[in-house]
Amino acid sequence: MRPSLVLTSTIALLSACSGAGVPGTNAFSNESVSPALSPTFQPLTRAQVPGNQNRDRVRSVVVYTLSNGSSHNKVLSFVARDGALKYEQSFDTGGLGDPAIAGTVQGSIAVSDDGRFLFAVDAGSNEITSFRIVADGLQFIRRVSSGGMLPVSLAVHRNVLFVLNEGSSAITGFQINRNGILHAIRNSSAPLSASDVGPAEISFDGSGRVLVVTEKSTNDIDTYSVADGIPSGPTVNASSGMTPFGFAFVPGREVMVVSEAFGGASGSGATSSYKVTPPDTLTSISDSVPDHNTAPCWVVITRNGRLAFTSNTASNTISAYSIGASGSLTLTTQNGISAETGKTPTDLALGPHDRFLFVLNLKSRTIGAYAVASGGTLMRVRGARGLSASALGLAAVPSPTE
């Protein structure tokens, strides 16, 4: 019988993966820190930093996060120049955030496949806001009802967007028109496996024919087959390990990598991989490969499909896994530490060309930045600090002027 998540583990996980409620200012400034060292970490020289010979590419990255405030919800933008993030401006969604969900979900910001539009959840007002990405920032398009209560995560494939409404324990689909306006798809709502399951993320597979939702409280992974924007399901799959949280798909392959927080138990974090077969079948490839750290909750994968990174929320570290041809996972460092972070690392985002990895450090109220080398080696470079304690979601995109 697979283990169930007891109440004490749930409380420990929420504490480990949120870190919310830390008061702080909203004054933005630069963060300058030294490379994080561990017994297996080999810092790069300046000449080895990826993109050092082509600074225009680094300078053209824009990083977005949500303020997620209860009275105002804003998208905050940062510009990366030579690896140093600088706060640029904010864009009001007109909706409300919900500080209580900070550090508990992945995918609260999504960018359209063509890079023209950005979508953000307004969890406190049960809405989704659309922006057009333009040369001088973001242009507000429209705010629409999420079709449920407490929207926390978004999935986009071509002209279809799905939202995970945690408060309604359901998912709902929208069509994205050519102007970035969302229109609810009739009969596109579908339930999760049950109520109050602690959903963490929704995402499409690469084909757009399968939707996946992870459930922290049940140790289940829900899959839905999707045709013409209408989901069927869910098919409920037992997770390989406890507390499946964030996940990502390997580009060009039907392989999914899932972090497992194991209820926040110290040193017990792991990551699993699965083969995804339409219409909705999951088959385990690597079962619960330990990272020897605590509460891995967020996952990103490089565009070449060779590396997966997880943020270990309670260990203040990042782990890297190499992804084999079959989708198997191998930890790249013996102790599971590829970099040390600020306090309570949550959301992750890879910049264009995968030269830089960004992490939202919730309790430190910073965005950390790391140069990425082959094999998953990371070198910390200058990031930004001064975020609110309720910050949520992370996306890194090319500057529209590139």
Description:
By secondary structure, the protein is mainly beta. It is built from 2 helices and 31 strands. The strands form 7 sheets. It has a 5-stranded antiparallel beta sheet, with no helix packed on it. Strands 9, 10, 11, 12 and 13 form a 5-stranded antiparallel beta sheet that branches. Strands 22, 23, 24, 25 and 26 form a 5-stranded antiparallel beta sheet that branches. Strand 10 and strand 11 (170-176) form a beta hairpin. The longest helix is centred in the N-terminal third of the chain and has 12 residues, at 7-18. The model is unreliable at 1-15 and 18-58 (pLDDT under 50).
Strand order of the largest sheet: 1-30-29-28-27
Report the uncertain regions: 1-15, 18-58
Q: Structural class, from secondary structure content?
A: mainly beta
Question: Given the structure, what is the number of helices?
Answer: 2
Number of strand segments = 31
Please bin the fraction of helical residues. Answer: under 10%
Rounded to the nearest angstrom, the distance between the terminal CA atoms is 53 Å
Rounded average pLDDT: 87
Overall form: globular
Strand content: over 45%
Short key terms for the protein model shown above:
globular, 48% strand, mainly beta, 402 residues, five-stranded antiparallel beta sheet, disordered N terminus
